[in-house]
Amino acid sequence: MNKERAIDYFSELEVAKYERSLEALKEKYTLKSTNDLRFEKLDALISSFKKTTQYKDAYMLDAWHISAGTKKIIFGVIGVVSESCDIGAMYLPGKSIHRDAYPVIIVQLKEDFGRVQIRPETLTDKISELFEKKELDFDEHKRFSWRYYFLADDEEKARAAVTRKFLDNIDQHKGLLLYIEGNGLLATKYRAINTGDVLELAEFGFSLAGD
Q1: In 3D, which of 133, 182, 186 has the Cα closest to residue 158?
Q2: What is the total count of domains within the chain?
Q3: What's the rounded mean pLDDT across residues 176-204?
Q4: Contact 98/56 with Cβ under 8 angstroms?
Q5: Which of 30, 15, 16, 27 is nearest to 61 (CA)?
Q6: Domain span including residue 142
Q7: What is the mean pLDDT of residues 180-186?
Q8: Which end of the chain is less enclosed by CB atoms within 10 A, N or C?
Q9: Helices 195-208 and 164-171 sit at what angle, rounded to 10 degrees?
């Protein structure tokens, strides 16, 4: 783990939760730590992640290669920096810096999707779609299209890459947020580290690996 950065993102309790999550992964999969946090596709994924989420900055704090048979994915922890405006003493505006850490998985897909974001669809999304069509809907999977919001820079490329199995695998989970750059995929649930989410993300990642 990048300890110089991680100390700003993790409390002692969160470190303990992270270590328990790693032990749970090791019971199911083969893990290999990596100190190389600039592996293929990562820079593009992190850049896309920052642009889409509007975080001030984002870093990979730790990464592990995970394998199950011939399938391989990457599990890691991303540290994000956000900024908010506050009203301080004497009602003078100020800014606060917030740091959080989320578990993520990174998967190399077979097809090139272009730049894609997939997230749970909100009521606001549904209302805005009445006035301006932005998302991609899939007639062959109406349940997915009802639950998730699919945005793509290149509709033709994204539709050519999407399969029914891909949509099924996402639809089996709640609260996933996916960022795709080419054939690299980063997925998270935007929640503090906990063993349940970590195992679910790993299971989801392996369902896509090789697709």
Answers
A1: 182
A2: 1
A3: 92
A4: no
A5: 15
A6: 3-208
A7: 91
A8: C
A9: 170
Map the chain to HEC letters.
CCHHHHCCCCCHHHHHHHHHHHHHHHHHCEEEECCCCCCCCHHHHHHHHHHHHCCCEEEEEEEEEEEECCEEEEEEEEEEEEEEEEECHHHCEEEEEEEEEEEEEEEECCCCCCEEEEEECCHHHHHHHCCCCCCCCCHHHHHHHHHEEEEECCHHHHHHHCCHHHHHHHHCCCCCEEEEECCEEEEECCCCCCHHHHHHHHHHHHHHCCC
Indicate the pTM of the whole model. Answer: 0.83
User: How large is the angle between the packed helices 195-208 and 12-28, nearest 10 degrees?
Assistant: 40
Minimal CA–CA distance to 5: which of 44, 58, 42, 50?
A: 58
Flag whether pLDDT at 62 surpasses 90: no
Q: Which residue has the higher pLDDT, 21 or 55?
A: 21
Give me the amino acid identity at 185. Answer: L
The residue among 193 and 132 whose pLDDT is bigger is 193
Across the range 136-141, mean pLDDT stands at: 85
